[in-house]
Amino acid sequence: MSSIPVDRSPDSTLAFLRDGYRFIGDRCDRYGSDIFQTRLLLVPTICLRGRPAAELFYDNDRFRRRGAMPMRGQRTLTGVGGVQGLDDAQHRVRKAMLMSIMTPAAIRQLGQLFDDEWRARIPSWERSGPAVLYDEVARMLTRAVCAWAGVPLADSDVARWTAELHAMIEASAVLGPRHWRGRLARRRAERWAGEVVDRARAGALPAPEGSALRVIAEHRDDRDRPLPRRIAAVELLNVLRPTVAVDRFVVFAALALHDHPQWRERVRGDEPATETFVQEVRRYYPFFSVAAARVRRSFEWAGHHFPQGRRVLLDLYGTNHHPELWPGPEQFRPDRFVGWRGDPFTLVPQGGGDHLTGHRCAGEWITVELMKRAVTNLTTTISYRVPPQDLALSLRRLPALPPSGFLIDGVRRIA
What we know:
Layout: H1 13-19, H2 23-31, E1 35-40, E2 43-48, H3 51-57, E3 63-64, H4 71-78, H5 88-101, H6 104-127, E4 131-132, H7 133-149, H8 158-171, H9 177-202, H10 212-218, H11 229-244, H12 246-259, H13 262-267, H14 271-284, E5 290-295, E6 299-301, E7 304-306, E8 311-315, H15 316-320, H16 364-381, E9 382-385, E10 407-413
Parallel strand pairs: 2-8
Antiparallel strand pairs: 1-2, 3-5, 4-10, 5-8, 6-7, 9-10
Helix pairs in contact: 4-8, 4-9, 6-7, 6-16, 7-8, 7-11, 7-12, 8-9, 8-11, 9-10, 9-11, 10-11, 12-14, 12-16, 14-16
């Protein structure tokens, strides 16, 4: 049996925070292996990347999610008790609840609401000076997803709740003030979402049939019990927060159009080209860095021993940039997706495996729809200039974002 390479540092937590998205990939390259061991937060951890690793990682007979994500991530990003940390029957029933919301018609409806918000902002952009696309898209997505989910949101509250959702997204992989802002935002948001669920359950807030609010408020778990108020709030936020997080992908799409202007003409009015462009944006740019699991029972794989209870991290960014899967991985080449059949273990920006039964993100189809709508709006609905600004994308920042948030100026409606 071959031994797993061991990282030399007694604990790699600070290195993980320093190196960001390249932490696992750099060490895999150093050791000439797609697997190595280290310690993170003093916990022994096996790190993996690549397609075979992804297929292994999403084997629910070998891995569980309970106790895998550090509490700092649960208390900011996902919420304690959310679907991401469940296994077996609990997970199947809760995941089916979320997937029932993701019908093609519902996804198109959310896309249309986003389009409506985009078009409503154009007159303001035309009158004002430079606009920060990241901030603008975030507020549009907050309005759209709340309306779609059946969650009432006053105009005066949009900026506040957008900021709270952003704080949770920013907090899980950092130390200091950003983390504590995320913790406070999580508490406030769960209180707010819990009150909305209470009103829906009491009949004081009519929730449309099939809306996220109604489905979650009425859901019964694997033991035929309604979700506790706090857990229902967590899952409602697990619809709202990831949708708002698509604002990063929209900024990355705008950045790709800016850096590769030939694609602006290619995607204009061309649905297949837009699809391939969006998929390459999702592959190329950094979104989630890793996914976590724990070994259910000891087993052997590829000559390596995985002891029971060991934490395992799958490098999502590194798998999306693995040279054996993606020739020229550091080149932006949307044409690589022409004829692509959708292997669930190679393109994993939002996790891998099966949507319905596994731990792949329930909102992935929403992400693709909203990105396609954004690309269409950026190329056919408005024209704009990109003024001088700092668009450098640091892979050390988790989660990544250009420092400027992508400024646009001179906006004019063209459609």
